[in-house]
UniProtKB/TrEMBL annotation:
SUPFAM superfamilies: Molybdenum cofactor-binding domain. Transmembrane segments: none annotated. It comes from Marinobacter alkaliphilus. Pfam families: MoCoBD_1 (PF02738), MoCoBD_2 (PF20256). This is Molybdopterin cofactor-binding domain-containing protein. Residues 207-285 form the Aldehyde oxidase/xanthine dehydrogenase a/b hammerhead domain. Signal peptide: none annotated. Gene3D superfamilies: Aldehyde oxidase/xanthine dehydrogenase, a/b hammerhead (3.90.1170.50), Aldehyde oxidase/xanthine dehydrogenase, molybdopterin binding domain (3.30.365.10). PROSITE patterns: TAT.
Length: 732
């Protein structure tokens, strides 16, 4: 399809007056509700199922990858249903439009949106079911429903003595109709929301009964490994099939779109055969670059193109002309891998005119499209069974591993589990993009009068739309899949949501400055990229808060006071910054050989300030303590908030200290944890998480701990050494 954006808009608006790429068709509900007399099951809505035997089952539409959605979202339902959260059984949702994330129009878990998007709908679901049970009991007793109460899964008679179990009422409750809005429990009556509680999936995970993708076992299952081109975009042209097919346990070997698939009765048999594999690669269209060339292309693009105007207030050029001092800086961040605990894997079984896929995926509806691409099946013939995820961090939003498993299973017609090795995960995964930032600020007698931020790099949607657009239209014929993706990109920011992955966090610059300019120079060197924990906030946080520290130093002010004087209009920013500084004894002398640095950043609606205390020991950076104050609105489970913020801090510190993926002639240098290091237990600092008590609607906590810790550490090292580092990872 050859059509520019202007022509596309003429055609689309001329035909229909508008174009919307996320369609909800009323009357086509795919999730059945109501009472089933054969089984005694009652589904008052798409989320809940109550049975005659007093079972309560909650359908979780967001995946569980360690971030606590399994517990947090169940707690919302339990609170309004008036039962202990531990009494509720949880099952993962099938692919259905009813379970889509309303912010994205896709059934995905990401962007720290699970709690924010579920806060009201799940509470309403629980409250309505509870009200219908009360109405049924009141009808039995012939009393006023308003006089009845509930307690621990029972409806209590107005006399306070008689009661009926929920299970006794499910059939009658199905006949009740709730008119108008059901009032939700006031905060003063909450038993579970806002209180510390253990994770509901902890026992299953501790005892090994929780099923991850790697745990799936099927009768007659074989194992597959995929040998991919060392350079992205390379294609296998031939390989020594006769040699490897005769090795013990090997049952098949063939070329696919992704590379060469080896299939064996056991996983290690497939891996041993892979060691003998010799592949001829056609790399005529493959990636051919190195890290230095990527950043050189970024600099050239930045010099030629000032970029699209993303935020503009006042006049930064005039501010610079009038300034007594102009400060400029350039920051670099490398490509990063995700390094999830569980490597990529999926199990697929093509049978009876359909396919079942078991996968640890953050986006099951995109997984269905990925499988459909490599079979003769429509998406409706493919069932995605979501498992627990051994970490996601955004990597499992991209479904390449499901595509591979589906392609192999389609050819073999038997259950196939395809597993990536750690080396493959490092060398062939999709990465967080490398980014370049050019900063320029104007100072007059210590006052910041102008702020200019030019962001240089790619957009993730360019790589993600391939399966995301068709997932919104699962009924579309497959020959339209790629066209839908191209249309989505052309309409981006007009008829489809704007991709802010490169600029998020930068455009929300919170400090009161009269003249502000934020621009994005879009350039893409062809390295495959995807979402990474905290996405654009991760690199923009480093650039913004490091540069703010530089400006404080240039103006001769304390970094805390320099920021505070520009936050009068941002009380929530100001509060977390002051709290973190107070808890860290900011202004007091740090222990000998140590220094402190701070940073403030809002991401995914959550305000976070951090103070890092660091030093250098035996030629290596040592982080001793991180003090973090967080305002995430209403807290559902403080323990989960603490866990996630601490996990985000360690994730960010790992990136700050070690994270770097480099290319040579299109090939990734790093291969495993020996050269793509992670922070180890003995290196972890003391972490203090201070949670602001708030009644605002809840926001996310899975990612906001990451962005501020990286610049806070860099700022601490500057305070210690007097040397400013503008490139990651940081060095001693």
């Amino acid at each position: 399809m050859t059509m520019n954006r202007r022509d596309f808009l003429k055609v689309s608006t001329g035909a229909s007056g508008s174009l919307i790429l996320a369609v909800s068709i009323p009357g086509c509900a795919s999730v059945q509700t109501g009472y089933q007399p054969e089984t005694g099951e009652w589904k008052p809505d798409i989320w809940l199922e109550l049975t005659r035997d007093d079972e309560i089952i909650f359908t979780l539409a967001r995946v569980e990858m360690g971030q606590g959605s399994y517990t947090g979202l169940t707690t919302l339902v339990a609170e309004e249903l008036d039962v202990e959260p531990g009494r509720i059984k949880v099952r993962f949702a099938p692919v259905a439009p009813e379970y889509r994330n309303p912010l994205f129009g896709l059934q995905l878990t990401g962007g720290s949106t699970s709690l924010a998007t579920s806060w009201e709908p799940l509470r309403v679901a629980g409250a309505q079911a509870r009200q219908m049970l009360i109405m049924a009991a009141a009808r039995v007793w012939e009393v006023d429903a308003d006089q009845c109460t509930t307690q621990d899964g029972r409806v209590v008679h107005p006399n306070g003595l008689d009661s009926l179990r929920y299970g006794q009422l499910v059939e009658l409750a199905d006949r009740e109709v709730v008119r108008g809005k059901v009032p939700l429990k006031p905060r003063s009556e909450w038993k579970y929301i806002g209180h510390k509680g253990g994770k509901l999936d902890a026992r299953a995970k501790a005892t090994g009964t929780a099923v991850y993708g790697m745990d799936v076992e099927l009768p007659g299952m074989v194992y597959a490994v995929m040998t991919r081109s060392p350079r992205y975009g390379g294609k296998a042209s031939s390989f020594n099939r006769d040699e490897v097919i005769g090795m013990p346990g090997v049952t098949d070997a063939f070329i696919t779109e992704r590379g060469v698939a080896l299939v064996a009765q056991r996983y290690w048999q497939a891996r041993k055969a892979q060691q003998k594999l010799r592949v001829e690669w056609d790399v005529s269209d493959a990636l051919d670059t190195n890290t230095e060339a990527v950043f050189e292309s970024y600099r050239q693009a930045a010099s030629k193109d000032p970029g699209a105007k993303e935020r503009s207030e006042g006049n930064v050029e005039k501010a610079a002309e009038r300034a007594k001092q102009v400060v400029e800086a350039e920051y670099e961040q490398p490509y990063l891998a995700h390094a999830t605990m569980e490597p990529m894997n999926a199990t697929a079984w093509y049978r009876d005119g359909g396919m079942d896929v078991w996968a640890p995926t953050q986006a099951p509806d995109l997984g269905r499209i990925a499988a459909a691409r490599h079979t003769d099946l429509s998406p409706g013939k493919i069932n995605i069974h979501t498992t627990f995820l051994g970490g996601g961090f955004g990597r499992r939003l991209t479904q390449d591993y499901i595509e591979e498993a589906a392609a192999v299973a389609y050819q073999l017609k038997v259950p196939v589990k395809l597993i990536w090795s750690r080396e493959e995960d490092t060398r062939h995964g999709f990465l967080r993009p490398a980014m370049l930032h050019r900063m320029k600020a104007s100072l007059n007698d210590g006052e910041l009068t102008g702020w200019h931020h030019q962001i240089v790099g790619p957009q993730i949607l360019d790589w993600y739309v391939r399966n995301a657009a068709p997932a919104q239209y699962p009924w579309a014929p497959k020959f339209l899949y790629d066209t839908l993706g191209r249309v989505g990109l052309m309409a981006e920011g007009i008829a489809t949501p704007k991709d802010i992955s490169a600029i998020e966090g930068a455009i929300e610059y919170p400090y009161q400055v009269q003249n502000v300019s934020v621009r994005h120079t879009h350039t893409d060197p062809g390295v495959p990229i995807t979402w990474w924990r905290s996405v654009g906030y991760s690199h923009n946080g480093f650039a913004v808060e490091t540069f703010m520290d530089e400006l404080a130093h240039e103006s001769g002010e304390d970094p805390l006071q320099f920021r505070l004087k520009m936050l009068d209009a941002e009380p929530r920013h100001r509060e977390v910054l002051e709290r973190a500084a107070r808890l860290a004894d900011w202004g007091q002398t740090a222990p000998e050989g140590r220094a402190r640095g701070l940073a403030l950043f809002k991401s995914f609606g959550t305000y976070v300030a951090q103070v890092v205390e660091a030093g250098i020991e035996n030629g290596e950076i040592r982080v001793y303590k991180v003090i973090c104050s967080v305002d995430c609105g209403q807290v559902v489970n403080p323990r989960i908030v603490e866990d996630q913020i601490e996990g985000g801090i360690l994730f960010g510190l790992t990136a700050a200290l070690y994270g770097e993926i480099n290319f040579d002639n299109g090939e990734i240098r790093q291969s495993n944890f020996h050269d793509y290091r992670l922070m180890q237990m003995h290196q972890t600092p003391e972490v203090v998480v201070d949670i602001v008590d708030s009644e605002a609607d809840p926001t996310g906590v899975g990612e906001p701990g990451v962005p501020p810790v990286i610049p806070a550490l860099g700022n601490a090292l500057f305070a210690l050494t007097g040397k400013r580092q503008r490139r990651l990872p940081l060095t001693a």
